[in-house]
Structure formats: C-alpha cells, structure tokens
Design brief:
Helix content: 40-55%
Oligomer: single chain
Distance between the termini: 24 Å
CATH architecture of the largest domain: 3-Layer(aba) Sandwich
Structural class: alpha/beta
Largest sheet: 7 strands, mixed
Low-confidence stretches: none
CATH class of the largest domain: Alpha Beta
Strand order of the largest sheet: 3-2-1-8-9-11-10
Number of helices: 14
Length: 499
C-alpha cells in the first residue's frame, strides 16, 4: 500500500481489523503504526498456523480463525490455483485477466457474519479504526452489512481489495465503489495489487448529511400532502363541472363540441395541477432561500426542473454539461449552491453550458450574474459548426470539443459521474439536431458513468434521436438503461456505464 497516499497508516490509533489476512505480508507495517490492537481474521488453517507462529507472545495481536460472510454457520471454502487465493464462492467462468483460474480444492470452514464479529470485538468508536477487507466474492455483502448495522462510522478507514472473480471486473469495481459511498466513505486512493485496492476514509459529514436528508424527506412529504390537497380540490371542481354539464347536455354537434372542449379543458387543468405541484416542489427545496428561477418564457417546465434538482442532490456528479442554456442553467447553479452550503462541501460538480446564439447567451449570463453564479458556471458561446458522426453523416452542432477536452482532462476521479442535459440546438437547425450530444461526449469519456437527460421527448424527432443514441451505445459496447419520464413536454434518461 502506498503509505504516503493512504492516510490510515499515519492516523490509525485504535484497531486494525484485517478480514482475509492470509499470512499477512503487511504485519510488520501494521506493527509500526500507532494502532493499539491488530486483529487478523483468516479461515484457512494452514495460514492461521503461520500467523500464530509469527505473533506468538505479542499481546497486541489477535488471530481469529473464521471466514466472514453473509450469515454465520459452516460453508465450503474454495481454493484456487493461485497461491493465497481462496473464496466462499466458486467461479462460473474464468475472468479475462486470469483465463486459467480454476478450483483445486474445497474444505468446509466456520463462517461468522460481520455484525456478530464486530460485536465480539467491542471496538472503541472514539478512536481511528481501520477495516481491511480481502474476502473475495463477499465484498458487496460485507459493505451492505456494514451500512445496515448502523455503525459504518465505527471505522475511520476502509480498504477494499478486489480481485477478478468474474468476466465483468470493471463493473464489479464500479459497483463496490458505490457501495463504499453508500456506507459513508469517500475514495482516497486507488492502487493496483493483484486486482484493485480501493482506499477510503469516513466522510466526517456523513451523519450530518443523513440528518439533513431526513429533514428534506420530511419537507418533501409536507409538500406532497399540500399538493394532494390542491389536486383533490381541483378534482372536486372538475366533478362539479361534469355534473353541471350532464344537466345542460344538448344534442347534435353542440354536444360533441362541448365534450371536446371539456376533455381538452380537463387535460389542461390536470397538466396545470402537475406543473403547480412541480413548481411547489422546487419552492420547497429552496424553502429558506431567496427565489426560484423563473419558469416562464424559457424552454424547461417545472416538472423537468424538479427532476433536475432531485438527481443532482442524489447522484453527487463530478461534471454537469448542458447543451443549450436558459432557466435550467440558473436552476442547476442555484441547486448546487444550495446543496453545497447545506453540506459545507467543496467537491461539488463543475458546470459547463453551451449556447450558440449570442442573444440567449447574454440573457443566461445576465441571470447568472443577478443570482450570483456568474463565476461558478462556465458559460460558453459556441456557434454551430459542422460535426461528422462515425457513419460520415453531417450535422450542425456546438463548437464545443476543445472546451470538453480541457474539462475532461481536469477531472481527477478515474471513474467520473457525469450528467449531460440536452435541450438544444433547436430542430430548425437541421434534422436530428440533438443527436451529436452523445457521440461528442463518449468520444472523450472512456470510464465512469454518464446520465444523458433529454427534454422535449414528446416530439417525434427527439424520440428518433433516442433510438439513434441507443444504436450508437450498443455499437460502442457500453451498458445502458433507458428511463422514459412523464414530463409536460416529455423526457428521457439514458444511464450509460463506460468501464
């Protein structure tokens, strides 16, 4: 482990708990730390004998002979043809990195679940404890057990050693990293050591964030209750209107005309209710803040704006890109500022917006300046230029590739989380005008996750663009998920995993 990059080596002063320690090549280094106690957990009897011989008479070190898994009991332990590699899980197919990997032996061993192990050790939560997990194939269940135990912050540091045990190792690494974040840890360093080692430290604001989330959830529930009351009142009005209409019903063309007007009126009212609810949801999010950005005279609707706030609050993106600027640009900046000030965090996303018309560029810049976000948003005036896709088709699209190159190069995280909001250019600039948004980003991003959010999905041409994007993603061999969103003007989200 790179000691200068992993703060646990200098700061651990409680217990070092190493699950799956093997013969523990790190033992001498552990003993040079300030840790009061070193607990080595290992299921293989032959490795346990070596550990006991090496640590005989050392009261600072404890050896626990058990495997750690989903639940306590007895279970087969599989030995592989790579020395020191064993797991409670067999392999269905060899991973690409080790095509010759195979099981050579199987023995029954004692298994202890993580909550039971932690209870037996009685760790001091006031000290800096360090958890090292080398339980191949059990990493996800152990991290989930740590989060569900209610005591994830019992450890100041968690190091997770992941070895290839299936054919999709990159996705496994990405998934386990998300599990670490869910348990309240931030990635500190990634190392390569017979696989990948993720070194993380506890987020000191985790409990504060959890409490804030609880308060936001309560506010959201209050908003839903108010919206329900409003919706019920409007439904009663509609019902009364229907009763009156029945009594005043007339025959012939007048009746058909009236029914058509009533149907359209009902749709308009229900749509209005939905937009009011969304706008109130945005207002609830900014309940102690200055003013919600205007939703009139600009492209996005309140339901689209509320969805933007919720995913930004939930996903902790590294970068947010907008193709087309306007009220969404201001709303995103306001939301980032609000979340940032609530959590006192300095690691919130870079925001870049591209606009090809100087008139709208100036309008957006003016609103950003009025709201105090002129310096926090990278607003780019990017005239349309020719873009050639992989099939040789020509489009008019934002001249944004140099800016994107510089922005992507500034991201430190090897697995960045990116949100791309596509609300331009308008269809009048050419057929399938918004298609280049996806290829222009995927040409720059090789790893990480990209969420692509498209507005105006109710239009036929935008629906066709999504189909073209899906074909492009499949040809690029990326995994993705499509989510159709019930917005006033329609919406669609593609969640792409580039690993």
């Amino acid at each position: 482990m790179e000691k200068e990059l992993v703060s646990a080596w200098e700061n651990v002063d409680g217990t070092i708990l190493h699950i799956g320690a093997g013969e523990c090549s790190e033992l001498e280094a552990y003993q040079r730390t300030e840790a009061q106690r070193i607990v080595l957990v290992e299921p293989r009897p032959e490795a346990v004998r070596v550990l006991r011989d090496r640590t005989a008479g050392n009261e600072r070190i404890e050896i626990v002979e058990t495997a750690v898994g989903r639940k306590s009991g007895s279970k087969p332990l599989y030995y592989f043809n790579i020395p020191q590699l064993a797991s409670l899980n067999s392999i269905k197919e060899p991973p690409e990195r080790w095509p010759g990997l195979q099981v050579v032996e199987k023995r029954n061993v004692s298994v202890t679940d993580l909550p039971q192990l932690l209870k037996s050790l009685s760790l001091d939560s006031k000290r800096g404890n360090w958890l090292i997990i080398e339980a191949h194939g059990e990493e996800e269940s152990l991290l989930q057990a740590l989060a569900l135990s209610g005591l994830p912050q019992l450890f100041s540091y968690v190091s997770l050693h992941i070895v290839p045990n299936n054919s999709d190792f990159s996705r496994t690494v990405s998934m386990l990293r998300r599990e670490l974040e869910s348990a309240g840890y931030r990635l500190e360093h990634t190392a390569t050591q017979l696989g990948v080692v993720l070194h993380s430290r506890a987020d000191e604001r985790w409990l504060e964030s959890k409490d804030l989330l609880k308060k936001l959830t309560a506010l959201d529930q209050e908003q839903k209750n108010a919206s329900t009351d409003l919706s019920n009142a409007l439904k009663k009005i509609l019902k009364a209107q229907e009763n009156i209409s029945e009594k005043l019903s007339e025959a012939g063309s007048f009746a058909r005309c009236r029914e058509k007007i009533q149907s359209q009126t009902k749709k308009d009212i229900l749509s209005g209710v939905k937009q009011i609810e969304a706008y109130l949801g945005i207002q609830s999010f900014f309940n102690d803040w200055k003013q919600v950005p205007s939703m009139h005279g600009w492209p996005v609707s309140p339901d689209f704006g509320l969805y933007l706030i919720r995913i930004i609050e939930k996903k902790n993106y590294d970068l947010i890109i907008e193709f087309g600027s306007g009220s969404s640009t201001v709303l995103i900046a306001e939301a980032i500022s609000k979340i940032k000030s609530s959590l006192m965090d300095s690691t919130f996303p870079t925001q870049v917006a591209f606009e090809h018309l100087e008139e709208f560029y100036n309008k957006t810049r003016s609103q950003l300046k009025e709201s105090g976000h002129e310096k926090s948003v990278q607003l780019e005036l990017s005239p349309l230029a020719e873009f050639i896709d992989d099939k040789g088709n020509s489009y008019s699209y934002y001249s944004c590739e140099k800016v994107l190159f510089d922005v992507f190069n500034s991201i430190v995280d090897p697995f960045p989380k990116i949100l791309v909001v596509v609300d331009g250019p308008p269809g009048s600039t050419g057929r399938h005008a918004r298609f280049p948004a996806l290829p222009v980003v995927l040409r720059k991003v090789k790893t990480g996750t990209i969420d692509v959010l498209l507005d105006d999905f109710a239009r036929k041409e935008e629906d066709e663009v999504v189909g073209m994007w899906e074909e492009y993603i499949k040809n690029s061999n990326f995994d993705y998920e499509r989510i159709d969103l019930d917005f006033e003007k329609g919406g669609c989200m593609l969640r792409i995993s580039a690993m």
